[in-house]
Write a structure and sequence with these properties.
This protein is mainly α. The protein has a single domain, classed as Farnesyl Diphosphate Synthase (Orthogonal Bundle). 69% of the residues lie in helices and 1% in strands. A two-stranded antiparallel sheet has the order 1-2. Helix 12 packs across helix 14 and helix 13 runs antiparallel to helix 14. The protein is globular, with a radius of gyration of 20 Å.
Length: 355
């Protein structure tokens, strides 16, 4: 596949890029959802923000569409029309929403995007069923994708989903591990978990776009790597927002992860910073028995100590480092200049979520 000659490109803004890719993918996503049984289809529509409980339509989209954009842009970067990646984008969006439905149940999160989570709105059993339906539909979409690359795309999604499950397993298991001592979760272990839990699906979106475009293996690998690095940056920023973000923006209660005893990057970085605030933070968190039993005053004090020990800045520095690695991966292979410019412009969107 011959790529266009390099030219000076003025890329779209991140908002315009996301809107363009959503406009390409969302009609196909909505059409696929209508093929489900009406009950899971309604719950899926609720999860995507398209309807209220009971199915009454509402104005909304399926989120900002970062994964959709990665699939489309990576197909275009490989020299193909973006439309060839629509089935890959739909499959990843379905799997992502499946994971959110199940994660909210496992984590006990009662809200998602400022509304009751699906399990709170419809019940735990129905939410599990809706997630299962989305999971199965994702593989059907890829298996029936036109062109010669559908089987390779199914294999890619299956492989990357194993990483997602591994990452979620590590995340859940870490909640019962101590904050300090030889059994504690260290920063390196956390970053490996983040690459699996969050990075794998972003990497999968990028890889599927390239695969469906018929890109060579080296290009698929480079784009997948860029997506995974972007995913770790995304998770690092998400952790910061979980401690200091505005619930009206994040759609989730502030301090929720810390209250539950989840190990997040700002807290782990603060605990290992070796400062007086680190020691006070360790003492405070270790004294909470059982984990997750701390009151509001203790949680606010802990969040303050995390910031004082440099946990916020460490997490943001890691996010910036991962974005640099994503840029390096994108520059490591020949890509069409226009889509490459859009990808590079889209990367800072991750840290831009902080406002």
């Amino acid at each position: 596949m011959t790529l266009p000659a390099s030219t000076t490109v003025s890329p779209r803004s991140p908002a315009d890029t996301l809107a363009r890719c959503r406009a390409l993918v969302e009609p196909a996503l909505r059409e696929r959802i209508t093929r489900l049984h009406p009950w899971p289809a309604e719950m899926a529509g609720y999860a995507f923000g398209w309807c209220d409980i009971g199915g009454a339509p509402r104005t909304g989209t399926s989120g900002k569409g970062l994964r959709q954009a990665l699939a489309v842009l990576c197909a275009e970067a490989a020299g193909a029309p973006g439309g060839i990646a629509v089935d890959g984008a739909v499959a990843v969006e379905l799997v992502h929403t499946f994971s959110l439905l199940h994660d909210d149940i496992m984590d006990g999160d009662e809200t998602r995007r400022e509304r009751p989570a699906v399990w709170k709105a419809y019940g735990t059993g129905p939410a599990v069923l809706a997630g299962d339906a989305l999971f199965a539909l994702a593989f059907e979409v890829l298996a029936t994708a036109p062109g010669p690359h559908g089987a390779a795309a199914v294999r890619r999604l299956s492989r990357d989903l194993r990483d997602v499950v591994d990452g979620q397993s590590e995340d859940l298991a870490s909640e019962s591990r101590p904050w300090t001592g030889p059994e504690a979760v260290d920063v390196h272990a956390y970053l490996r978990m983040a690459e699996h839990k969050t990075g794998a699906l972003l990497g999968c979106a990028a890889a599927l776009g390239a695969l469906l475009a018929g890109a060579p293996e080296g290009t698929v690998h480079a784009l997948s790597t860029a997506g995974r690095e972007l995913g770790v940056a995304f998770q690092a920023v998400d952790d910061v927002l979980g401690l200091w973000g505005d619930p009206a923006v994040t759609g989730k209660p502030v301090h929720g992860d810390l209250r539950r005893g989840k190990k997040t990057l700002p807290v782990l970085a603060a605990l290992t910073a070796g400062t007086p605030a680190s020691a006070r933070l360790a003492e405070l968190l270790t004294a909470v028995r059982p984990p997750g039993a701390a009151g509001d005053a203790v949680i606010r004090r802990a969040a303050g100590l995390v910031a004082e020990a440099g946990g916020r800045e460490s997490a943001l520095a890691e996010a910036r480092r991962r974005l640099d690695l994503a840029r390096e991966a994108l520059h490591s292979v020949p890509l069409a200049p226009g889509p490459l410019a859009e990808l590079l412009t889209l990367l800072p969107f991750v840290t831009g979520r902080l406002g």
